[in-house]
Design brief:
18 strands, 2 domains, Diaminopimelate Epimerase, Chain A, domain 1, 18-stranded mixed sheet, 23% helix, globular, 292 residues, single chain
């Protein structure tokens, strides 16, 4: 039986918010099989959104592989925040470095920016964005979200952008409506599978607090759960959406995320030259050993 360092960490926590749960397992030199990855992912169904496996890398400081309870995930922003925030804090040789490189299994090598001393946060370079034509009608999207088409704003565009995961971005007219949308998970899962979508981000330019730029929510039934309470990939797609439509100049902003059933979480966004960065802090909930 093998023993691996294990932590359950909530990413994008802010104040009393609970963040988005991820677990990470440090496998080091060991390479697990796809079946072992998926087995561990299935064991965590309903406990965390994704499990991150951290192994040695020949091209970066470490390699991250992501699994939900359903499948391998191309990229997991909150899992990257959760894992790297704790690994940097716990690694004396990394703690004083400004940058750490990570190899991701599907999205290449990315950079982690260490801002722990200045703002108790880290930032990750989002994968290079891919932009797609969105040919899905407003009425069809409204039906999938179980809302009226009148709830979708005509002031802003609907778009489809991949900055880690292929994300359908839908503007909602008001914050009150946006935070109370709860689609049927089974129906929405079929919709995303039929339209080759990974996640759906809905947003309102209205916020509960004046120091936030926008309010977002992300639905991810493809990966075995209805909603992601705080996301890196979804909000990275949103950052690219804002830049594309000239709604943001790339300066540091914070986005609040979540429905009316939780305390809102906080995701930081900024640009670094031509790159979008997403960031935040994390909170350890469980620490121990995973036995395989």
């Amino acid at each position: 039986m093998k023993r691996y360092s294990y932590k359950k960490v909530d990413a994008f926590t802010s104040g009393k918010s609970m963040g988005n749960p991820a677990a990470y397992i440090v496998t080091g030199k060991d390479k697990l099989t796809d079946n072992e990855y998926l087995k561990i992912g299935k064991e965590h169904a309903g406990f965390v959104s994704e499990v991150v496996f951290c192994s040695d890398s020949k091209v970066a400081d470490c390699k991250l592989t992501y699994y939900s309870s359903e499948c391998e995930v191309d990229f997991c922003g909150h899992g990257t925040i959760a894992t790297m925030y704790e690994l940097i804090k716990g690694n004396e040789s990394w703690r004083d470095r400004d940058k750490i490189s990570i190899e991701t299994n599907k999205k290449g090598v990315l950079t982690v920016y260490n801002n722990l001393k200045s703002e108790d946060s880290i930032y990750i370079t989002a994968p290079k964005a891919l932009f797609f034509n969105c040919n899905i009608s407003k009425d069809r999207i409204a039906q999938a979200l179980n809302i009226s088409s009148d709830d979708i704003s005509d002031k802003y565009d609907i778009d489809l952008i991949d900055a880690g995961l292929r994300t359908l971005i839908v503007p909602i007219n008001s914050l009150d409506k946006e935070i109370t949308i709860y689609p049927d998970e089974k129906y929405l899962k079929q919709f995303v599978l039929d339209n080759d979508i990974d996640t759906i981000l809905i947003y309102s330019k209205q916020c509960s607090q004046p120091d936030y730029f926008a309010h977002t929510r992300v639905f991810a039934p493809k990966f075995g759960y209805l909603e992601d309470p705080a996301t890196g990939s979804g909000n990275s797609a949103f950052a690219n959406y804002l830049l594309k439509h000239n709604l943001w100049d790339g300066s540091p902003i914070s986005v609040e995320q979540g429905g009316d059933n939780i305390i809102f979480n906080s995701v930081k966004l900024k640009t670094n030259g031509l790159e979008v960065l997403f960031g935040g802090k994390a909170t350890v909930r469980i620490e121990g050993v995973y036995l395989l």
